[in-house]
Amino acid sequence: MDWDDLRVFLAVARAESLSGAGRVLKCDAATVGRRIARLEEGLGAKFFLKSPHGYALTDAGARLLPHAEAAEAATAAAEEALSGEAGQLTGQLRIGAPDGCANYLLPQVCAAICDAHPGLEIQLIALPRLFNLSKREADMAIAVSRPTAGRLTVQKLADYQLHLAADRDYLAAHPPITSRADLRGHRMIGYIPDMIFDKELDYLAETGAEAVGLASNSVSVQMQMVRAGAGLGIVHDFAIPFCPGVSRVLPDEIGLRRTFWLLRHADDRRSERLGRLAEALGQGLRAEIARLEAAAAVQ
């Protein structure tokens, strides 16, 4: 058994299809199928069952998986030790993040990290959902709540604040808001209730509103609705400086504090490279959040 065979096995296990694995491996599905057949024949075991939903691991495949992941981690560690100049981070890094963080924070933070490490390539996946690190959708992911299950390494990155906000044109066209009671009759902007993928994103109770008049599963779209003068919404303070004319409403009465968490696969916990990247990411996020929240407080 060699590492290249295990690499093909891992790709199919994570993609759950030959074509998906082929895209990762940059080869056609037929080649992937032949490689898996050769591996199964050589080891005398069936590792996958094909179904209408894709390729699922058999019991034998499930037993092989942790060993293949350990081989992957060892290979990556060896490459880290032998590549790049002293102190420099190189290679490709894929980060999954909720769209608010990805839109308003990570572009600046990742640019600074790449400036410090020219040989590093960062890919940013912005999706309003949780990421599956076991399937290697990303090397690391940022979450808005601390997971309680899964083989993960969890690290606190930074706290951040959210407040009720509105555009100045909207506020000028409606009666003054001096208390929670004044919010009655205003259109609220927020998440689509049945598409809230994390309990930390359920902000509605903070306003006392009974329903959302305009909704989106994307926090960035919600922010643009607020900016367009469509109503009031709970928004990230760090997003407010990007939207001239938007300001906080009842900041002393309605405010939330949340936390960003960095998640990595447990097998990566010994990776010096990912550890240094995680440290740089945390430092950059904390600094950028502090800068933007200070600007939001006076906007």
From TrEMBL:
CDD domains: PBP2_LTTR_substrate. SUPFAM superfamilies: Periplasmic binding protein-like II, Winged helix' DNA-binding domain. InterPro entries: LTTR (IPR050176), LysR_HTH_N (IPR000847), LysR_subst-bd (IPR005119), WH-like_DNA-bd_sf (IPR036388), WH_DNA-bd_sf (IPR036390). This is LysR family transcriptional regulator. It comes from the Bacteria. One of its GO terms (molecular function) is DNA-binding transcription factor activity. PROSITE patterns: HTH_LYSR. PANTHER family: TRANSCRIPTIONAL REGULATOR (PTHR30579), TRANSCRIPTIONAL REGULATORY PROTEIN (PTHR30579:SF3). Belongs to the LysR transcriptional regulatory family. Pfam families: HTH_1, LysR_substrate. It comes from Paenirhodobacter ferrireducens.
